[in-house]
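How a chain folds remains the central question behind the approach discussed here. The record that follows shows the chain in one-letter code together with its fold in token form:
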Amino acid sequence: MSIIFSRQCEYALQAVTYLALKPAGEMTSIKELAKKLDIPYHFLGKILQDLVYKGLLMSQKGPTGGFALGLPATEITLFHIVEAIDGVGFNTNCVLGFPECSGKNPCAVHDSWGEYREGIYQMLVKRNIAEMAKAMKKPEYAAMRR
């Protein structure tokens, strides 16, 4: 599990990256996604529905249904997915969990974390899912590019 993002967010990032490797508009079943990415089926279903609600994915019911990107992969940034699933608390919340942490009342790592947080934010807003899918070297993704 990530130090910054929830398990749901990690799974969302993995699933959307996988879908980005599919031809535009091609539906992928939740069964395929769950199996290929080793994500619990029902947990993944809830995550994907959240992404549909936010407009990042589209879904279709029926035997030929499934999920596909709701926008071109070049238009979906990592930040869009993080925002849809976890919100943007990572960009404002204290990394140690102190609710009152701020510039006026900083925790022990407040200033250091601020530098990292800005770097993470810049990476999330600058990287899109098309770039992520292209750069992915994990076997379950790489096999789709052949």
